[in-house]
Structures are given as C-alpha cells and as structure tokens.
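Forum: Protein Structure Q&A
Topic: Joint prediction for protein chains with partners

I've read a bunch of threads here and the consensus seems to be that you should model interacting components together rather than docking separate models afterwards. I'd like to see that in practice. Below is the full input, 1440 residues plus whatever partners are listed. Could one of the regulars post the assembled result?
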Amino acid sequence: MSYDAMVITAHPDDAEVQMGGTIAKLTARGLALLIVDLCSGEPADYAEPGVRAQQAQRAAKILGADRLILDGQDRLIQDTISLRLRLAQLIRDHQPRWVFGTAEACVHPDHAAVEPLVTAAVFYARLDNWDRVPGGEILATTEPWTIERLFFPHCKMEPAWGGSFNFAVDVSDTYERKKQALAEYRSIFEVDEGDQLLNLYEAEDIHMGRLFGVAYAEIFKAHSPLLVDDLTVFKPGLHG
Amino acid sequence: MSYDAMVITAHPDDAEVQMGGTIAKLTARGLALLIVDLCSGEPADYAEPGVRAQQAQRAAKILGADRLILDGQDRLIQDTISLRLRLAQLIRDHQPRWVFGTAEACVHPDHAAVEPLVTAAVFYARLDNWDRVPGGEILATTEPWTIERLFFPHCKMEPAWGGSFNFAVDVSDTYERKKQALAEYRSIFEVDEGDQLLNLYEAEDIHMGRLFGVAYAEIFKAHSPLLVDDLTVFKPGLHG
Amino acid sequence: MSYDAMVITAHPDDAEVQMGGTIAKLTARGLALLIVDLCSGEPADYAEPGVRAQQAQRAAKILGADRLILDGQDRLIQDTISLRLRLAQLIRDHQPRWVFGTAEACVHPDHAAVEPLVTAAVFYARLDNWDRVPGGEILATTEPWTIERLFFPHCKMEPAWGGSFNFAVDVSDTYERKKQALAEYRSIFEVDEGDQLLNLYEAEDIHMGRLFGVAYAEIFKAHSPLLVDDLTVFKPGLHG
Amino acid sequence: MSYDAMVITAHPDDAEVQMGGTIAKLTARGLALLIVDLCSGEPADYAEPGVRAQQAQRAAKILGADRLILDGQDRLIQDTISLRLRLAQLIRDHQPRWVFGTAEACVHPDHAAVEPLVTAAVFYARLDNWDRVPGGEILATTEPWTIERLFFPHCKMEPAWGGSFNFAVDVSDTYERKKQALAEYRSIFEVDEGDQLLNLYEAEDIHMGRLFGVAYAEIFKAHSPLLVDDLTVFKPGLHG
Amino acid sequence: MSYDAMVITAHPDDAEVQMGGTIAKLTARGLALLIVDLCSGEPADYAEPGVRAQQAQRAAKILGADRLILDGQDRLIQDTISLRLRLAQLIRDHQPRWVFGTAEACVHPDHAAVEPLVTAAVFYARLDNWDRVPGGEILATTEPWTIERLFFPHCKMEPAWGGSFNFAVDVSDTYERKKQALAEYRSIFEVDEGDQLLNLYEAEDIHMGRLFGVAYAEIFKAHSPLLVDDLTVFKPGLHG
Amino acid sequence: MSYDAMVITAHPDDAEVQMGGTIAKLTARGLALLIVDLCSGEPADYAEPGVRAQQAQRAAKILGADRLILDGQDRLIQDTISLRLRLAQLIRDHQPRWVFGTAEACVHPDHAAVEPLVTAAVFYARLDNWDRVPGGEILATTEPWTIERLFFPHCKMEPAWGGSFNFAVDVSDTYERKKQALAEYRSIFEVDEGDQLLNLYEAEDIHMGRLFGVAYAEIFKAHSPLLVDDLTVFKPGLHG
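Posted by a regular:
Agreed with the consensus. Here's the joint model:
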C-alpha cells in the first residue's frame, strides 16, 4: 500500500510526543500516513510485555495513521547497514512523498540513531542495481523511489539549548487529539516521572505556539534548505 | 492606496537584484506591491543625474510593481529615528501584509542600515499614542498597522560565507522578467565592473536554484521562526 | 546608597518580566537591589499618564527592590554617549557587584539599545580621569568602580530561535511574587494582547523550568565566560 | 564503594591533563573521586609495558583520587553497546553525583569516542528492567542510578578554534598538584614532543586563567544548560 | 613511491568533482599526487562493470595524478578500524605532506564516512609500536609519518546551507582540465540527472569564484586553524 | 606617500598589542606600513599628557612602521560619517594593498567602533563622484582606490569565548620586537593591572602559537573568505 508520509521513530509514543499534532493535521486533510517504530519500546516501566504495542495501535488510530512496529531492541538501536536497507525497503514499498525521523541531538542513544539511519535509508531508496551489492538483495525486487522532503521533529527530552529549528507547524486545532493519543500510553506515564515528562513535552509545544500567538506548535529541522513557490504560506509572526 | 507587500531597500536596483524574481512572482498572482528606495542612488557612475530614477520606474513597471524613491543620500543612509518614523508612516499608509528589507550582513553601509531601520519601522507602525512622543506626530493621524511577516533578502554583494538563510523562493518562471528589469539599469552596469556584478548576482541565483534542481532561486532570512499550517507547501529538495 | 545589584532595563515592567523571579530571590537573601528604568514607559496603552510609574514602584516593593525611573523617551531609547555617562555615574554612586541589562537580540528597538549602553557604562565606570574628557565631568567627582559580573536576561518578546543562553536560575520558589509584581501593571495587560503577552512570558519560564524538572526558570546570557570555584553549585539536569 | 564523582577518560594521563586541577580541588574539599581509564594507554612511547599503569596510580594518589584502569585497547576505543553497559555498571556501583568525560571534538579517535560512550552509559544507568535486554544482564542485579550532572573537559590536543565552552573552574590553588601528577608520567613526556605537549596543555590553562585575572583555569562543556540557585556563585570576569 | 599529496575520497569522480581544479593546479607545479578511491563506484548507473575504473584512470591522467582504487563496497563505506589502518599504511608508504578527504556534512553516507576515516588514518600514521596493537601489524613494518596539513573539500551534493568553509582555491586557470577529466565519466553523467549534477557542481564553482571576481573557485574546510608566515598570500576579495 | 599596508586602531598601543609581531614581520620583508591611531589615548593612567604620543612614535619605529595619531577623543570613538570619510581620504592618500582594523567583538566601545568605521572607509575609498555627496568633498580631489584585503586582529581584552578566527600568523621570529615596542608604553603598564594586561595579551599569543607547535601566533578575522592560489602556503598544524 502506498502512503503519503512515513514517520520513523525509535519507540511507540515517540511519533506522538514529537509530532502528534502534525500527524493528526496531515491525516485530517486526507493524507495516508504510516508510523514506523524501530522497536516495541520493551522493556517499559509500568507495562506488561505486549501492552505497549496495543497502546501504540490505539494511539495511531486516534491520530488517523497506520502503524508498523519493527523488531529492534529498545535501548540498543544503532545505525547499521541492515537496518538502513530494511527502512529503504519500507520506503520503496510505501512510496511516501514525505519522510520524518527524530532529530539527532538527543540524550537518548536510540533517538540519536534515527537521523543517520533515516537519512541513509532515503538515499538508498532511490539508488538502482542493489542486486549487485552484498545484502542489497532485499531492495532488488522493488523500484527505486525518490521522496520529496525529509524533516526531523525535535526529540523533546532535551532543551533546544544552543540549537534551532527550521520551521514550526501550528497544531492548535489538532492538539486535543495529540493529547488523547498520548493518554493511551497511560501505564508508561502514570507515575511521577511520567507526569513530569508529559508536562515537559507540552511545555515546549505551548512555548513554541505562544511565540506566534497560537496555542500549540511543533518544531522541525531539515537537512537541506526550504524552497517555496509562494512565501505567503508563512503564517504571521508575533512581531512580524 | 493599500499594497499587499512593500519592499524597502537602499537604492534603485537593490530590489531587483535581491528579489526581482520574487517580486514578479507576487505581482503575477495579482498582489499589489510597492518598492521603496531610501535614496535615488545618485551619484551613480555612468549615468547623468536623474536618469537612474527613470530607469527605476521602468524596471518597477516590468516587475508589475509601483515605486517610491525617498530623498535619502546615497552612501550616507543610517538608522535614524526620523527615518524609522517616515517608514512607519509609509507602512501605515499602505497597510502591507508583508514587508521586505535588505539583510544586514553586507559590505555596503547603506545596505547594512536597512535591516535595523525596517525592523524598527514595522514595530513603530503598530504602536499607538504617537502624539505623545516627540517627533511622532507624523504618525498621529494614521491608524496603527500590524504586518504579518518581515523578510530579508540577501544583499548579494558578499558571499553567504559562514552565513545561512531561512528559505528560498523558486523564481525560475519569472527570472526572465528579473533580467529585463535589471537591463533597464544598463548605464550602471555597462562597464566591466558592471558585468562582473551582474554575473555575481546571477551566479548566486543559479547556484541556489541548482541546489533544488530548479533553474533559479532567491534566498531570504527572517528574524522570527517560520510557522506553517501545512508543511506540504515545501518544494522537493535535491536529495530529500 | 550602595546596592549589591542593579537591573537596568528600558521600561517599567521589563525588569519584572525578564528576571522578576531572580530579583525576588536575590532580595530574599538580603541583597540590596536597584531597578533602573531608562524611561517611564509612557505613552502606554490603557493607562493615564503617570499611572505606570506608580505601578512600577509598587511592583518593585513587592520584589523587595528600590526603583529609579530615568527621563528617557519610550520608543526612542538609543545608545548615546550621554546616556552611557549617566549610567556610569549611577553605577559609581551605587557600587553594585552585579549589573543586569536586557540582552540585545530583541524586536523592540528600546530593548536592543540596552545591552550596548550598559556594556559601555560598566566600562566607563571603572576608568579614571574623566575630568579630561568632554562631557565626562559628571563622572569626575566620583570614584572609579569595577563591578564583578554583567549578565543579560532574555527580552522574552521573541523566540530564542537559533539563539542560546549561558545559564538559568531556578525561580520556582519566588515565582508567585513575580506574578504579583506583574499584576500591578494590570492596566497595561488587561486587554487581549496583554493576556497574550503574559502567557508568552510565562510560557518561556515554564518551558525553561521543565527542562530541569523544576517549575520555573529565567535565562541569562553573559559576554565573558562563567568562572566558578566549585562546579557542584550547578543544579541537576533532567538527564544529567 | 560509593564516590561523589567519576572521571571517565580514554588513557591514563587524560584525566590529569584535562582536569587535574579540578580533581584536586574536589578531593581537597573532601569529595571521593574515581578516575576510570578505558585502557592502559599501552603501547606508549618511552615506557616499558606496565610502567604507565604504575605512573597512573601514583598520579591519582597525588590528586587524592582512586583509579580504575579498564582493559580497552589504546587507539581502538569505540562507542560499543558492551562498553556502554560496562560503564553503566560502574556508575551504578559507585553512585556518583557528577560524571565527567572528554569532550568529543578531538583529533584523537579514542578521545572522540568518550563523549558518546559516557552519555549513553549515564542514560543506561538510570533505566530499569535490564534483565529483559540482551547483554543487559550485567546491569540486572544493580539498582538504577541517576546522576546529577555530566560535564565534558576539553581534550587539549586541539585548538578550541571555532568552539566554545560552558564554564571554567579556577584551579590556581591546586595547579601545583596538577603539575606534580603530570610529572609522574615523566617517561611519556620526557622527549621533545612531550615537552611540546606539556607546554601546549599548560598554555591553555594559563590563557583561560588570564581571561579572568586568575593564574589557571580548566574549561568544560555540558550537554544541557546550567541551572543555578544563586548566580552570585560566578566569580568576577576581567571586564564584568 | 613517495607523493607530495594524497586525495582520499569514496568513489571515482569524487576527487574530480570536489577538487579537480586544485589537483590540476598542484600537479602543474610539479607536485606528485595520488588519488585514492575507497571503492570502484560499482554498481553505477549507465556503465558496464569495470568501465568506471577505466574512466577513472583516464581522468586521473588528465589531471596529472596517479590513482589507486581500493576494494571497498560502494554505498556501504563505513568508518572501521581496519580501513583506518589500511589508509594509515598508504599514508606511511607514500609520505604525503598534504592529505585531502571529503568533508563530512553530506547526504551520501559513503561521503560522510570519509572525514572520520581519514582523520583517524592520519593520526594512526604517526604513532609508533603498532606491533603491540591487535590488527596493527600492517603498520609495524613501516616508519611513522607525520603529514603537514589535512584539508576537506566540499562534497557538492548538498547546499553549503548554514555551513561555511575555511578557504577557497582559485582554479580558473585549470578549470578546463577539470571539465575534461569529468567528461571521461560520460556514461555516468550522460542522462538527465547527470546533466543536472554536473550543472550543480559547476554552479558552485562559478558562484564561489564570482565572490572573488575570478571565474572558478573550489572550497575547503580544515579541522585546525590556518597558520601562515605571510598573509600577503591571500588573493584580493571582491570588496576587500 | 604610498604604503603597502595600513593598520587602523583606536589607541596608541592597540596596533602593538593586537598585531605587533605581524607588523614587524611585514616591515622586515621591506613593506612600508602606516599605523593610524584614531585618538591619542589620553587621558591615560600613569602618563602625563603628551607622553603617550611620544611612546607611540618610538614603538612604531621599533616595529619599522610610520605612525599617524588622529585627534579623536579616547573613550568616545564612534562610527560617524565624518570619520569614515577622513579614513577613506587616508586610504586614498596612501593607497595600501592591505588594511587592518580591530575586530568588533570587544568590551571596549572604542575598539568595537573600529570595524564598522574601517569597513565603511574601505568601501567609500573606491567610490567615485564624491563632489556630489554632502561632506564628501574631502574625497573629491583624490583618486578612488581599491584595496586588496581587509583583516581584523583580535582586541585581546576579551576571551575568544564562543568566537573564532580565520587565520593566524606565526610571529615567533619577530616577537622579541613586539615586546620591545610594548615596553615603550611602560608608564601605562607599570602598575599591577598593567602587568595583568600584558600577561593576558602574551598568554593568548603563546596559546595560539602552541596550537601549531610554534612559539607565538597572532590571530585575524576576515569579512569575506580567504582565496589562495596555492594551498601549500599553509604551515603545518600540530595534528595535521
């Protein structure tokens, strides 16, 4: 099946935390979207084995997206050739115009591995002749695919201290659904630290939104510059 | 008269060099646009006094924009309170949604003065009670006006060395008109150095365009971050 | 009279918005603190002439600080030699160990003028022989004074987009007093935009606080690096 | 045994070179400190096998710290899952409040591997349920441990060219002990290049110190911002 | 055989694209230069197996350089200990004063691997006692070698967006030979995308050249700062 | 008289402190060099009026340079049109190929004014038709002059904290003369703070030198990138 966009993150709940409002916005306008988690997020605190995957499927449904959970090992995600190839295969299979992956600057090593992985996978997906590359056979039977844009949402576990972003998306109108989706992961977040994390995540979305005079915004980076046909698409700034 | 956008630069030909393709694009979709030059660009090499203003009017017409030439002195443009107030008055008079002014990092001191001037003018334009501020009377009879966005095109006289930009506009389809507009300033550019300058300007537009696989692009900075409702407005990158 | 610290900002309410929690914290431990506003903040929306100065004095009292309002003109604050000298005189008169002034990167031209002004004033304050400098006589009868550190709070009107800060102060325990002080300026903030501004300011303090697992934090820049005797003074980070 | 701080660097002498003065300062105030070298630093020029480990133990004693030398291979240190887990185990065993590791930007590949290794180890140390992660068993019998802060001293082999640091520690009063500790590694440094290296290291400490008007200072980076309760802990700058 | 300089890049044609003009310039003044490709660049579009290696040898000859093609696998180049050691061995064998390798910031994962690989290889090459390091035996029979400078040409596949460079080389007088060398790779570039790529590469060289008023320039980064005996070696800037 | 290079700084001793070794190096190879001080540096501590000018002339002689002291007012140097024009006139009169001026990032407001002043003066010097610009008459009788390069030495009063430089000059062989020149200003530096300042300045030169394995180096910035014909002019780095 073909999707308009793919969101590739390390664990179930990453896609929701980092860009849940944007996902809901894209699906609300009719785009088909696939969330790919590199692992099941197990072992998780406060959840029996297998529960998190069920939570994740319900959360995806709330956001209007499909979800695929790969069999990576939580905490041990690394940028390997075989995982690059697997992701390239998924990109070819689903032919998305947009791909998203957690931005690299993050204290969690699983999160930090996503940006180089997805960058390589997008690059591999458009190359030909994989039958002549060791291990590349998994790509040999599919057609090359070139995506339009690759964007990186903020991991939110860390300050954007000394950092920056390239654009924000106004998610005021879909934020309620983001919160509903996150609520599915209730067992992960139900203790003290969980509340603290949810507060942290929401504090960033509120702060970014207020910078534009809107309620909530999610931020993104890009490797290559932004090109537009029409600069009137940018929404008003708080002070121009 | 009200305009959708105002482009404020130091000299006639700056608007054309820095964002002529973008201007043509905006007017082509029916937006009303006013170019404001802070001075006449006199004394200019290779042109009799007064000629440059006529060239500028013809160039603006080619781009589909109106043009106003203020009586500043070429080479001596500075960020003064009175010029801020004069520009704020123009902004109130013409009620633009978008304002543009040359980005500050430039070897030409006239260009470097534009960004602080325009930034302050946009801020002044939205404040009330100017009758109670010395010199502010020129704003007292007009209504406060809040623009939507303020963007800064690149001065192009200098490398973007160590610098960056926030977005580019694909101007492939209006570049021919940009070149026609620049051709009006033929007496300025007709000698050796002129050719060198035109080549320099065009080399940047080509280089920026090729980074996206399009023919020509013009680049812009912004003080505050970019907010969009829909990130699918960004055009494809060369490699995602 | 001598003060331990001076906070120099453009308008009444700037000190409160930018570092009200830090001020309350310093005075709570017995330090004497003087707030210097470069102008009265008039004309202000929604307040009769003279009212804002009274609000400011009440707000300072809540924070435990004294306040001096200079006779600059709101909106027209600039970095001039005479204002540098006036501030240097105040620094000599009050012999503070710490001086604070709004960080330069701000859309409001009054705010942007504070950092160069205060930087020069601190430098002037420690030089000798002002009787031999035109205009310097106002410093000639006072003794040179060298402060310990100069810090710059964030103006908060703009995103810290692409920017950074050097340290934050945990103001969780004094934030209630900050809010009480800001409430004094009720006539300024009582309309829609006012609420929006207060929300914006508070959103930054919350967001910065959550990055450390505390309720509220205020951020600061410094020109020269931070030197400590004992690095155990740094409080825990959220992730180390 | 529990330690207040752990310093994790690649080779014996790294801890001394990079932050010997800070180590001596921390132990002088009664803190217990463990230096962990990832390898023995063999083969070293100008020292018989095994000699360097003895030098390292004497140097640690001079600084008042304990020392543990792991069995990594000099020159081949890399960021691997198993080494992350081993370091996480050490962190759990010794429950430090502060952890230090060489900053990544360094020409020596062993040094460059320390920052990602230590960052991941600190993160692993606080997670639970390692019995359910392949290879994680070595953490399964120990309790999760959350440190307070993670700091990165400068490798000193390279210029801080284009770089920066987050704070410096005044080590004027313990510098003599740093030099005594380094003198233990006499066989490594006794030839021409050695002198050159020691001069290079000391030149940075002197230069950094002079920027504050003190004799010697050591510099540190941090991933996440600095939070203080009391900004009066910062020592005077040379010019405020 | 000994060479004055070695250029280490991932694929045949990288050296030409990234710094072909500089190579021709160095060989024109009599320096001996070796290009080392980490792999054959196979599978390549539009070329039979083995053809690209022949093209590469002809291109090197046009530039006056020798060429060695290693047996790495296109698309799968990574920073491994064994490849570091192999490159260190080549550096020792050929004793270059200057080494070049593609700068890391590049969308192609093969290109991104070159900078850490070459940095480590240069470092390994100057160390002694490799017989006592596992796998280091391949260096044990050669003499340590210390190069003078390591520089990194731009990969050219990506914008220099937000980036910078340390110096440029005026290649106007050898650019014709660069184009001849690139023409050898005709089968790679003969389709649409090829033209697009060649245009992209040339657009950067033109743009960089025009910034100085010369026809073409190639840009380079360096890890450590530039030291000169005589700053009059820098050529004129367009505006000083 | 025509000079090969002009060094424009605020006060007598600035040229010596910031680039005395480079000046001595340029004059040693036969280049004619003019130092221009924007003011006499009066009132100075510890020197009778007029003494500093004499010291300055002797110091210039030691460095092999001529010196011109303008009549600006110490502490009150600002970027004004009239001073720009005066400096442009000097540049035209002396037709230097290289111009130097203190880099802007400095705590001393006089130093901070030099970079914009010199940048504008260099730009003014090459423009024609000054008889048609108010105040420009002082340039009307001289011929336009275009310099080759404009470089900015470091003010040295502040850390290069968070900053960077573009190249360094090895001044090991002329450093003795730099120290002799500085010794002429003995009355300024003879007290405690003076020693501290001289130590600070020298500490930077030593530190920068040691980064390359040489005794002393002075650092410079440039507005526009460095272009070379021959990259073999760069001296060895400590680690390549």
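The CA atoms of residues 8 and 36 of chain F lie 5 Å apart.
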